[in-house]
Amino acid sequence: MNKEYINIEKALIPYRFEIELGSEIFELEIRYNEIGDYFTIDLIKDEKVLVNGEKIVYGEPLFSEVYDVRFPAPTIIPIDESGKENRVGYDNLNVTVFLVVVNE
């Protein structure tokens, strides 16, 4: 199993960036909700929004509930590989919890 990590620049939020997932180029847009201390992510391909505002939930693969053939082949999972965390929040994203891209 091959893994990569998606770096989230919290100081830039809200922001959009391009990323290669599998052999395709997508855009991800990251937002932060201060009141609830959670992040959301949009998935965009060819300037079409495929998913808008999906909450980043610890241990849950992104886009799994709304998946269709236009989505990236790799799975993206927010996890803490040390096993210390159990949620995603501002203080731990890109510190102990990372968006891990799993290429199976």
**Structural class by helix and strand composition:** mainly beta
- Describe the main β-sheet briefly: 4 strands, antiparallel
- Gyration radius over CA: 13 Å
Mean pLDDT comes to 90
Number of strands: 7
Identify the overall geometry.
globular
Cα(first) to Cα(last) distance is 5 Å
Poorly predicted tracts of residues = none
Strand content: over 45%
Q: Total domains, how many?
A: 1
> Which sequence of SSEs, written as H and E, runs from N to C?
EEEEEEE
Determine the fraction of residues in helical runs and give it as a percent range.
Answer: under 10%
Strand line-up in the sheet with most strands = 2-3-4-5
Number of helices: 0
What would you say this structure looks like, in words?
With about 100 residues, the protein is mostly beta strands. The protein has one domain. The chain has no helices and seven strands. The strands form two sheets. It has a four-stranded antiparallel β-sheet, with no helix packed on it. A three-stranded antiparallel β-sheet has the order 1-7-6, with no helix packed on it. The termini are close together. About 15% of the residues are buried.
Topology (SSEs and partners):
Elements: E1 2-6, E2 15-21, E3 24-33, E4 38-45, E5 48-55, E6 75-79, E7 98-103
Short description, anyone?
The protein is mainly beta. The chain has one domain (2-103). It is built from no helices and 7 strands.
